[in-house]
Every structure is written in structure tokens, then in C-alpha cells.
What does this fold into?
Amino acid sequence: MTENKARTLIEFKNVTLDYGETEVLKNIDLDIEEGKFYTLLGPSGSGKSTILNLISGRLKPTSGDVFLEGQKANDLPANKRQVNTVFQNYALFPNMNVYQNVAFGPSIKGFEKNKVDNLVRSSLSLVQLQDLADRDISEISGGQQQRVAIARALANEPKVLLLDEPLSALDYKLRKEMQYELRELQQRLGITFIFVTHDQEEALAMSDWIFVINDGKVEQSGSPVDIYDEPINHFVANFIGEANIIPGVMKKDYLVSFAGKDFKNVDAGMRPNERVEVVIRPEDLDIVVPSRGKLQVTIDDQSFRGDSYEITAIDDAGNEWAVQATNPAKIGQRRGLDFDPEDIHIMRLNESEEEFDARLESYEGEE
Ligand code: ADP
It folds into this structure.
């Protein structure tokens, strides 16, 4: 079977970036392929915009290399790169109308009027704004301004569109709509999108591939499902959704001990009695009668979340468990907690991403 591997568009090799004494990016490796939706996900200040600035050419690496389509591009000026950015504040020209904003890029490239007009019309229709071409920027809503910013970037026919927290100024409902639209637009155009957000739900909903960034490093990269189901460490498990993280010991292959008991699980390949962290997601836990529970707990707290109850339960070893349940419970009641072997995820302490990948492959191969 021949593997249909997409072409690599952007590659970072061991890239660092310093501001004076401060190391903002630390040995970043990235591989960005053609035609996919990527997300850089991480807390504010973790280095996401700095990575975008290195891709667009607004910054140069302090050390390491940036490759664009296989060519070293550390010193390639921004205007020589087929990359455009949509910013959080949109950065539209307030004294121009919608059409003029979108026409700006193609016009300064010196294209003839007809070609500019075609590019503007097709970009505006991609974001469904063809009827508002003559409006002033002050006469359209925030959501429409967002669309103009995207059309303005697309009119430059980029190979890569960078989106720096573009939805954070929108209200919840509009943001959800735009998430869907952006995803759909990327699939229709088939160009690479690199989207920056600190919102894990947004990242999980939109991306083919996520880079989790923390403190200038890539903590983990993978598909949304991989990252949610198999977080590599404490930071990722906590940052991506809610997680119960409990200290444990892998007694031997497929047997883990935590909260004072032994449980069958699906992990292998660790040293006997290796100390680990155990992750179980709140939605993977069921509250049952005490005799059916794998752990016995006391209900400590609960809050209503619209579509579910978030329940806090304490086991007999004193660990606190967050449980997402469809039915309410009674505070102070004795109950059982049930879960399946596959719901137990193991994190090794200080495991590198390469070791982590090898371990997952070793036990996935045995299934
Ligand atoms: P993010 O996009 O994840 O919020 P940034 O890439 O904007 O993070 O910033 C990463 C770090 O670099 C932050 O700690 C920020 O304070 C610092 N930083 C950004 N720009 C500059 C600058 N021009 N001079 C000094 N430090 C900067």
C-alpha cells in the first residue's frame, strides 16, 4: 500500500526565540502539511503569536531554522511569503468600505483592475458578504467585520492562513457559528489554516491537528481525540477538558494500583512498580450502588450544569473525584464509582513525546 502523504509546507527545526534575556520559544519543532486545519492551543503568554510571527516573517528565529516548502526561510521577507494573517482586532482600514478593504492586497501587488475585481468578488462571496461590498466598515456588525478580515486575507490567495484568536471578540453564539464556518471554509478551499486559541473546546471542535503550547514549548501534538484521550502529562490533562489525576503505580503490564486497590487497565511497557499518574475523565465515571462500584465514595458536592450534574465524590483513600452524571446525587450519601479498563489513562512522570508515542504504539499493536 502506498501512503498518500501530504506535502510539508512549513517546518520548524529546533527554533528558539529570545527577547533580550528572556527565552520565549524553546527548541520548537513543528511540521505543517498542506490542506489541514492546525491549532496552536495554550494559555495566554505561552508563545502562540510568536510562532505565527515566525511563520509570517515578522520575526526571525534566534536559533534554529524555519523552512517554507523545503527552503530555509529564516531571512525571507514577510511580503515574499504566501502567508496572510487574520488578527483578533481585525485591523481593518476604517476609512475604506468593505470592497476597498478586500481590494487592498491585490491592488498594491499591481494586478490589473479586472483581476482585482475578480479576487474581491470571489473572496467576498466565500464569506457571504457579496451584498455588503459598498458598506463602510462602521456600518457593519462585529461578525461581519470578522468576515471582511478573512476575505481580505483570502484575496491575497495565501497558501497558509494564520488566524490569531480571531473569534475572541464575538459573543458565544456567533463564535460557535463562526467556528463552524471557518472549518467549512478551510475544507472548501483546501488551504492550510493555522488557528491560535486558548479555548480547548474551540480547538477540539475545529482542528485536524493540535499543538499544545506551554511556556514556549510544544507539550504534545496530535489529533483532538488523541490529545483528549491520551494526554501526555499533567499540564495537557488539566488544560484539555476536566480530568481526575490520581497518583498510582503500574504493578505490571495491564495492572495499575491507585486509591489503595488494583485495577485491570490497557497499558503496558513500563517498569514493574513504576510510579505514574492516572487520568480518568469525569464523563467516564458512573455513580452506582456501593456494592457494584470499583471504588466506594461519599458524595461531597454537586452543581447543575444545564445538561448534566457535576458531582464531587471522595474515595476511602481521600482522593477527590469529579463525576459528570445525568442524575443528581445526595450529599453525604455512600455510593460506588464504576469505570472500564479503557477509561484509565496512564501518564508516566517526565516522559518525552517520542517515548510516549512508542508506548502507545506498543500497546495499540497488541490489541
Ligand atoms: P501568546 O500568543 O501565547 O499569548 P505571545 O507569543 O504573544 O504569547 O508571547 C509569548 C511571551 O513573549 C510572553 O511572555 C510575552 O510577554 C513575551 N513577549 C511578546 N512580545 C514581546 C516583546 N516585543 N518584547 C518582550 N517580550 C515579548
